[in-house]
């Protein structure tokens, strides 16, 4: 091979191919103005959806829903919120906000709710997002502090920590909110809920170290804060509406709300007392 003839490199061929494709199929570049308009459109879409949900929740106590929609405004609001959330997740998975993705998400959400229905969860209070954010922030702080305390107790010389099981009562009324509070305690290192007495709202919690009275008082203080925070986030007295649904272990969990009211009037079905735990009972 003569030195004048050189073999073209692969990189140059790729660059030439990219140049040819770019000339034949030009791609519109997103300028700063177009990107800003797209972001504003996405934010406006989410704002409108959130406003519609808030308006529907505001109307839940002022309108009477027909039976073919569920018969209860709160139940219909929960269904609409589920459809909206599943649609939002679907759009996030595709990564592009378009009418096709939105309509496809609504179709997928309806198919999931019809073909794969979940047991009815009692909706008895209202969600306060700012308090939930406060709970999440406090959870991160407690997680870091407790992790450092447990790690130091594991490596420091001396006697091993003294664990114990303590009993604490909480004033949380809903089983779902009580489960969230228990998850909070279980996520914090050093505490583990061993038993839950749903009837009396009693928790039996294992504490990592109770060698001093100050540690026990700190635990009770933490539980009191968790109790107040979850009540403020989900169970405010001014917004509490007891649900007629008992749960999946109820014989009438498949009965609609109108049928439940009819059975309650006939005396066949008794309404669940959700006013709180029975204070007169004590565990020996």
TrEMBL record:
Q: Which family does it belong to?
A: Belongs to the CPA3 antiporters (TC 2.A.63) subunit E family.
Species lineage: Bacteria, Bacillati, Actinomycetota, Actinomycetes, Mycobacteriales
What spans are recorded as compositionally biased (Basic and acidic residues)?
A: 264-273
Q: Name one GO cellular component term.
A: plasma membrane
Q: What InterPro entries has UniProt attached to this entry? A: Cation_antiport_E
Give TM regions.
Answer: 40-60, 76-93, 99-118
Instruction: Give GO MF terms, alphabetically.
Output: monoatomic cation transmembrane transporter activity
> What name does the UniProt record give this protein?
Na(+)/H(+) antiporter subunit E
> Domain of life here?
Bacteria
Its membrane topology = Multi-pass membrane protein
Q: Which UniProt keywords apply?
A: Cell membrane, Membrane, Transmembrane, Transmembrane helix
Localization: Cell membrane
Origin species, per record, is: Gordonia amarae NBRC 15530
Task: Extract the ranges annotated as region (Disordered).
Answer: 258-284
